[in-house]
Design goal:
Keywords: Oxidoreductase. By secondary structure, the chain is of the alpha+beta class. It contains five helices and twelve strands.
Length: about 190
């Protein structure tokens, strides 16, 4: 089998799949609205100023090596900074930090102006009082649809620094509302 045959087979398979019914963006979003997600703030320094945004798309990719990822729309105001960044911080918000999540999800404002954050010794901003955080190095930016999948290698965490509050509960987002997970919700 030649490379040309492989490419042709893949193309034929792709064209056949295009005849399948397609899910629209609104239907796709509706399904994910009912899937709870942890809330994080991704933050970095860009041109000597902090840049950050709320993300509910942070995922663990691999434990060895320690890799994580998030997705970001290519139209995001934070994309230019992420496209050039070497390192960043991901702060996983606590259940009382819904106002911080809302602030970092708002466009056209200085998301850092109201405080509530501190720079790591390396400069990346972390959110004060977050349940935990990672400092990570970006290893890949992959265009996927109208977004980018940003893959990172974890370099440090709040757990390795001994700063995690064991009583903190994570902030969760589901169906356009914030929720908390407590001991009383355990099954």
């Amino acid at each position: 089998m030649t490379a040309e045959n492989v490419d042709l087979s893949a193309l034929e398979e792709l064209l056949a799949q295009q005849d399948e019914p397609q899910l629209g963006p609104d239907e796709f979003k509706a399904v994910f609205r009912h899937h709870p997600a942890g809330v994080a703030v991704v933050a970095l320094l860009h041109e000597d100023r902090p840049v950050g945004f709320t993300a509910t798309s942070v995922i663990s990719v691999s434990a060895a090596p320690p890799l994580l990822a998030f997705s970001l729309a290519s139209t995001s105001s934070s994309w230019p900074a992420i496209s050039e960044a070497g390192t960043l911080a991901v702060s996983f918000l606590a259940d009382h930090q819904d106002h911080i999540s809302a602030r970092f999800a708002t466009s056209g404002i200085d998301r850092f102006a109201d405080g509530g954050w501190s720079p790591l010794p390396t400069g990346e901003p972390i959110i004060d009082g977050a349940v935990s955080w990672f400092r990570a190095r970006i290893v890949q930016r992959t265009p996927v649809g109208d977004s980018y999948l940003v893959s990172m290698r974890a370099l440090a965490s709040s757990l390795t620094e001994g700063r995690r509050d064991p009583a903190a509960s994570p902030l969760v987002y589901k169906n356009r509302a914030y929720h908390r997970i407590g001991d009383d919700t355990e099954i």
